[in-house]
Amino acid sequence: MCGIFAYLNYLVPRQRREILAMLINGLKRLEYRGYDSAGVGFFRGNELGDINPPDKEEAKVELVRQKGKVSSLEERIRILEETVNFEVSFDVHVGIAHTRWATHGEPNAVNSHPQRSDCTNEFLVVHNGIITNYKDIKQFLTNKGHEFESETDTEVIAKLTKHFYDNHKDEGITFGQLVEMVIQQLEGAFACVLISSHYPGECVGTRRGSPLIIGIKCTHHFTTDQIPVNFFNTKVDKDHRTPPAGKPLIPRAESTTEFHPMGTDKKVEYFFASDARYVLT
């Protein structure tokens, strides 16, 4: 069964070495779930610890995937020290990680997660679950000129996100709005976390039917609404695409409330995981 882990540090300085160790340790705690490959995605940034530098080459997202055990992935990451500065510190950074149990496509690096939108890694996604209509989406995107490299159902999520971004980027669309558009087209059960070079320092987690837990670590108090969660007052029809008018399944008000730490201390760390083994220990 696939395992998801992600880590976001906000105004909590962390060296790249610490961030990658956090991601690897998160995967190690999920190893009991069984898997055949693993991978991580993180922001390259510049030597000043800026993940959104003027030089867009430095703003890219790095992707490392490996067939086999997490220890094999860890060795691949060590090799990166030859070309990537592991000592640089980031005040804000987000990284994602994943262990995969093959359901679509054989166990190899290309089929492992994170899956990417294109060769420049504009969007990366880690996914647990099955997208039952992925073949239809894949055909749609292929007709639009997108080229697929894996045999997975997950790749359609990354490429569909890029497709919508390319068509709506001039409208000032937020990352959350973009992912919301994507999941309305997906059928099946899933939990996902996405990052993008277009939205440095941000990640979006979403789920339908599969678990995704968010842990928060800080030393200060929160306002009542701690995490930006969207509830919708309409019942979604069976294909999850067009929500018709109707009574809500659960009587909740629509909400797009943002998380706001109280006081002047804004330091916070977020942990995303597919189960509580990492978040609660």
Describe it.
α4 (155-168) packs across α5. Residues 231-257 have low confidence and may be disordered. The chain starts with a strand and ends with a helix. It is of the alpha+beta class and 281 residues long. Helix content is 21%, strand content 27%. The chain has helices at 16-28, 70-79, 134-143, 155-168, 175-183, 276-279, and strands at residues 3-15, 37-43, 61-67, 89-100, 115-116, 123-131, 188-196, 204-208, 213-217, 268-273. A hairpin with a 6-residue loop joins β5 (115-116) and β6. It has six helices and ten strands; from the N terminus they run βαββαβββαααββββα.
Quick one: how many beta strands?
10
Q: What is the beta-strand fraction?
A: 25-35%
Helical content class:
10-25%
The main sheet orders its strands as 3-2-4-1-10-9
Query: In angstroms, what is the radius of gyration?
Result: 18 Å
Structural class: alpha+beta
Q: Are there runs of 5+ residues with pLDDT below 50, and where? A: 231-257
The oligomeric state is single chain
The profile of the biggest β sheet is: 6 strands, antiparallel
Q: Rough shape?
A: globular
- The overall pLDDT, averaged over residues, is 83
Order of helices and strands: EHEEHEEEHHHEEEEH
C-alpha end-to-end distance: 20 Å
Number of helices: 6
